[in-house]
Amino acid sequence: MENLNDMAHQDPWVKGGTSALQPEVSTNAEELEQLCSKQVTAADTQLERVRWDSALARLKYKHENNEKQRLHEEKMEQIHQQAAKIPFSQGLHDLFWPPNQNALFLCCFIFIRVIYTVRELAFFLVMKHYVFCFAIVLCFILKKIFQDYKNKKKCS
User: Fold this and answer.
1) I want to staple 98 with a disulfide (CB 3.0 to 4.6 A). Which of 33, 78, 103, 124 is the partner?
2) What is the dihedral of CA 29, 31, 37, 40, to 10 degrees?
3) Residue ranges covered by each domain of the chain
4) For the whole prediction, is pTM greater than 0.70?
5) What is the helix (H) or strand (E) element at residue 149, kind and residue range?
6) What residue stretch is flagged as signal peptide (predicted)?
């Protein structure tokens, strides 16, 4: 117990300190102020660094976007100049011409398959619905006859 009392009298932070300890407390307060000001300036420096980094990133993005736009405009201008040099009929011919032999083979194969499928579909419809097909053909024949009859009356 005596040790605790002795320690309390020796500790400068205990209430009722002597006047000799006052300068020590004031220097601690000054050090605290300096430390806080250093932290504030460090925080300000870090905040300023973040601001500059974001501004730099924004400028970099804007520069890249402008560069992409410029390249796109140059490419489009080049395409327009090439299109102006080529006659219209030759341009259409090149448009329908496949770029290589394999593509040509594939186009021909697809075209032949489409023709074959349409032919088979037409035969299927005629075989299954021959009465309906006969009625349609008869309607077209009668329509043609009536149109010819009307044209004969107008001419007469």
Assistant:
1) 103
2) -90
3) 1-87, 98-156
4) no
5) helix 130-155
6) none
